[in-house]
């Protein structure tokens, strides 16, 4: 009988762990939504906060574990040493917030929660070695109360960055086989996209945070004249009093003329 490969062993483990991972995901999403209620209840119309969750599919989980090994390969002689329990993000919840001030507020609220305060911080950075720069997203991993064998991940990202990742993930981070090697020069362009999205949000917030009283002062000091619509047909208020009287006399004459014709 042929001995099972490392991948076969891990696939079997995946489906053994799946029920627990689903329960962890339900707990984690519920905790996150509960923690964010104070923020969700005060959002303005232009502000958004969304919470989504996911379980890595089987092949993605295997690929993630494989990439962590030396040379990105499994050693067949050490098959029993590999386990999907070593992944930090088999189950994960993502919070997206717009604008950036709400993103930071969401992070503060979640970090105040006793459970997440103990989790390990692993922020997403534009350049991994630039630890002084503001991260692209906040990311934490740790154990949920229901299960201490599996770890879960919590990611809190600006909404525009998160939506860009939806495209970037499949197109560049995990491209189809025919695109591998073709997009090697996209790193700098991707960084420019991050910078542009950040600049957009910063300028947006700068404009909407202007002092309402100051805006009102500016308006009354330099009022914008209302746009006057030009009527298709002459209206009585478009003429002076003499012209209105003339129009009324002509109107009466037309009525008398119609009566005579009858």
Mean pLDDT: 82
Helix proportion of residues, in percent? 40-55%
Task: Please give the count of helices.
Answer: 9
Q: What is the helix/strand order?
A: HHEHEHHEEEHHHH
Detail the poorly predicted runs. 226-239
Q: Sheet with the most strands?
A: 5 strands, mixed
Structural class by helix and strand composition: alpha+beta
CATH architecture of the domain at 6-74 and 82-160: 2-Layer Sandwich
Q: From the alpha-carbon coordinates, what is the Rg to the nearest angstrom?
A: 32 Å
Quantity of strands, as a count:
5
Strand content: 5-15%
Arrangement of strands in the largest sheet: 1-2-5-4-3
**Mind telling me the CATH class of the domain at 6-74 and 82-160?**
Alpha Beta
What general outline do the C-alpha atoms trace? elongated
CATH superfamily of the domain at 6-74 and 82-160: Beta Polymerase, domain 2
CATH fold topology of the domain at 6-74 and 82-160: Beta Polymerase, domain 2
Distance between the termini: 112 Å
The gist of it:
The protein has 262 residues and is an alpha+beta fold.
């Amino acid at each position: 009988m042929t001995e099972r490969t490392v991948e076969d062993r891990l696939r079997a483990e995946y489906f053994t762990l799946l029920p627990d991972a689903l329960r962890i995901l339900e707990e984690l999403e519920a905790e996150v939504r509960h923690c964010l209620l104070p923020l969700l209840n005060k959002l303005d119309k232009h502000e958004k906060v969304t919470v989504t969750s996911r379980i890595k599919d089987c092949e993605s989980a295997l690929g993630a574990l494989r990439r962590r090994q030396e040379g990105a390969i499994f050693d067949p002689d050490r098959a029993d040493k590999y386990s999907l329990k070593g992944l930090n993000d088999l189950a994960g919840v993502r919070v997206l917030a717009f604008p950036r001030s709400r993103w930071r507020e969401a992070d503060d609220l979640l970090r105040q929660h006793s459970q997440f305060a103990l989790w390990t911080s692993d922020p997403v950075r534009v350049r991994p070695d630039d630890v002084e720069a503001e991260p692209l997203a906040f990311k934490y991993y740790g154990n949920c109360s229901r299960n201490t064998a599996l770890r879960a991940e919590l990611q809190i990202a600006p909404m525009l960055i998160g939506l860009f990742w939806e495209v970037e993930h499949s197109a560049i981070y995990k491209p189809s086989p025919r695109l591998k090697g073709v997009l090697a020069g996209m790193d700098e362009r991707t960084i420019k996209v991050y910078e542009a999205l950040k600049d957009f949000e910063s300028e947006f917030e700068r404009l909407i945070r202007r002092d309402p009283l100051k805006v009102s002062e500016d308006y009354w000091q330099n009022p914008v004249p209302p746009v006057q619509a030009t009527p298709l047909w002459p209206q009585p208020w478009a003429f002076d009093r003499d012209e209105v009287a003339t129009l009324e006399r002509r109107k009466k004459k037309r009525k008398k003329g119609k009566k005579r014709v009858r």
